[in-house]
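#structure-requests
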Amino acid sequence: MDIRELDLRASATLGDVIAKVRLDQLRLPTPCDDWTLHGLIRHQVSDNLGFVAAANGVTDDILAWDAGRLGDDPLAAYNEAADAMAKAFADDVVLDRSLQIREFGFFPGSMALSMHVTDCVVHGWDVAQSIGVPYSPDLDLVEHALGVAAFIPTGADPNERPRSAFAPIIKIADDAAPLDRLLGLVGRRP
């Protein structure tokens, strides 16, 4: 399957959870240390805009990854940024292009999208946990994210922390459900 299709579905799955957030819930804590629900959704909007900048050849502007604003409609802000990202990756050439992804380094566009799928699946769970709604992403999205998460620096080693996108690993049983194993790899307690 084309990674862009997986990414569109992961983005839509996260959008479906964000659609359930009420404005009075934006100050709720999340499983992400130091982020409220507002901060987490803003992170997703900002990351989408950062991926757009990367796909368009921006290489050394870390501020591009912090440009998201929610205004008074977080879902509209998220959907607008997700649509811009889908358009930025529509051309096949972007999948092979080397893109600078935040401070993490340069990756082929296809790998960048795999990282984004992982981010959407994990943060969809975070949002769902914060507002107390069920979360059941498609198994193929979870399995894809699980494969990517296995290669993400864990942050357990102090030398890795600057490159770690998530919290240190939490040990989860090998026979646990794929989503639970993914969550453990990114420092969540399912």
